Prior knowledge:
By secondary structure, this protein is α/β, with parallel strands linked by helices.
Amino acid sequence: MRANQVPTEEIKREPAAFDDRVTADGRYGRTAEPGRYRLIINRACPWAHRVVITRRLMGLEDAVSLAVTDPKQEIIDGDPHWVFTEETGSPGGRDPVLGIHALREAYLAREPDYDGGVSVPGLVDVPSGHLVSNDYDRLALDMATEWDGLTREGAPDLYPETLRGEIEEIGEGVYQDVNNGVYRTGFAPDQEHYDQAVDRLFSRLDELEERLTGRRYLAGDHITMADIRLFVTLVRFDAAYHGHFKCNIRKLIEYPALWAYARDLFQTPGFGDTTRFDHIRVHYYWVHEGVNPTRIVARGPDPRQWLLPHGREALGGSPFGSGAAPGPVPEGERVPDLR
Ligand SMILES: N[C@@H](CCC(=O)N[C@@H](CS)C(=O)NCC(=O)O)C(=O)O
């Protein structure tokens, strides 16, 4: 199904088209080198956001440059495409580093006959212009664990060995019912599929509410990949999924623990400072014409409520464990203040 069409069947997710791994020791064939790779994202996309947060927490901004596509996308031959535009800071509608207009061009540079889907995030090899990977979870995990020597001093351990089992177990439920659950709900082809998806989504949120009532973070006592995976859906929940995807049994702000937890993360460097509510709203309501044919973009809620005190420090833990917070966002990557 194309994102701009009326859903006729349950959303299906294909494995990543390209999944080359980049590591400091190059043991899978590609070596992490400063300036060699460019990360193509969209600020609306939760899967891209996972990698953006990880990159910033690990201090990889200088090592891997960032390119932001237009949240409205562009319809080319009936399909929405991720493109660079003047409006989102690319002079002449081309990425200044890669010289391309559409992300698809990097897929085609890699494989000239490629005719599958094109998704963000995508990691591109700058010298060749080839797409290296669109495997968002692997990209995030590798940046968190395999880029030694390029990460900043004080970078946290987002994937501690002793917690991996727990992180993956939580992550599986979060992926099925929450990250992908909102899409299964919003793109349900009929009432029955909608009912099943929305029930699973809110049962999982209820369970997470309970878990987070007594503890500050999902696993261990500092931020891990489990929190990044959940945050990217929570931060979009009331602005997009509640209305546009009909995930409206409750709002995020009606869950005391989840809402305070999400605000706590939002106010931690790496999370709110990589979030753009304007891009989130316009992307979902505009591009998914099949479920919102007028393309009217809903205005609320007021994002400034994300800055309200959260009181979660009382639960103990510390965001970065034995590490420290990242410094300021690089100049060219700053997002506008909330308004
Ligand atoms: N490709 C991955 C996830 C990444 C993803 O779905 N990204 C969205 C944006 S949020 C995308 O680029 N979709 C392709 C499209 O809209 O054409 C998957 O399906 O598991």
